[in-house]
Design brief:
By secondary structure, the protein is an alpha/beta fold. It is built from eight helices and eight strands; from the N terminus they run E-H-E-H-E-H-E-H-E-E-H-E-H-E-H-H.
Amino acid sequence: MTAPRPIIAPSILAADFARLGEEARAVEAAGADWLHIDVMDGHFVPNITIGPQVVRALRPLTEIPFDVHLMIAPVDPYLEAFREAGADSITVHPEAGPHLDRTVKRIHELGARAGVAFDPSTPPEVIEWMMDEVDLVLVMTINPGFGGQSFMPSQLAKIRRLRAMIDASGRDIILEVDGGVTPETGALCREAGATALVAGTAIFGSGGDYGRAISALRGD
């Protein structure tokens, strides 16, 4: 059986922030499937990035879906703002609010795809009883907060475990990986069952040939 073509989502965390609009257009033209947008608050994770205003400014510039990863706490008060700004999918951490199921349901009410992100220490069982509600699972293969970190091989077992949970559910849940993803580590993630890869440095730090970088991540 042929493995599905992986979704490639360049992370603008590694882009030139003085040229975000141009960078977004460039990766779309190079064949990116989604644009991954990391939102950090300096509280839930030790860094501060962007807010909904930047998402809103980027939205008219590209047609690919916006994959928004909220590394903020509390997360619930900001769901509507990011959806209105143009988020097509909104991914949250279980630790960012008191009631994960309620948060996921609210994302659906807003009309977006709902994702759950797993820090390296977060167990897969967090979503065991809400598999019917989740559209996307994001495995962090680094500690969230900064780009350019090294891939954590220990998380491959978690990817395999979540792949088994997804298959058992019978649902078409996207299994995404973010953190230290390169053509080499991306291949390991795909073999473990990942269907979407987030990459920042591997694309935006590739010397400008974004098309070749994206193809390499797909294993073309």
